[in-house]
Amino acid sequence: MDHVLKKYCPRIEFDSYEDFAENFTIEVPEAFNFGFDVVDEWAAVEPDKRALLWTNDAGEERVFTFTDIKRLSNQAANAFKELGIGKGDVVMCILRRRWEYWVCAVALCKLGATIIPASLQLTRKDVVYRANSADVKAIVAVNDEYVCTQVEEAMPDCPTVREKFIVDGSREGWVDFDELIASYPDTFERPTGEAGVTSKDIMLMYFTSGTTGNPKAVEHNFAHPLGHIITAKYWQQVQEDTLHMSVTDSGWAKFGWGKIYGQWIAGATIFAYDMDKFVPTKLLQKIQDYRLTTFCAPPTMYRFMLQEDVAAYDLSSVENFATAGEPLNAEVTIQWERLTGKKIREGFGQTEGPVLLATFPWIEPRPGSMGKPSPLLNVKLLDDDGREVDDGEEGAICVTGLKEAYPPGLFVGYYGNPERTEEAVGGEYYNLHDMAWRDSDGYCYFVGRNDDVIKCSGYRIGPFEVESALVEHPAVVECAVTAAPDPIRGKVVKATVVLAKGYEGTDALTRELQDHVKKTTAPYKYPRIVEYVDALPKTVNGKIRRAAIREEDEAASAAAEEHVVEGLV
Question: Best label site of 296, 338, 370, 429, fewest CB within 10 Å?
Answer without folding.
Answer: 338
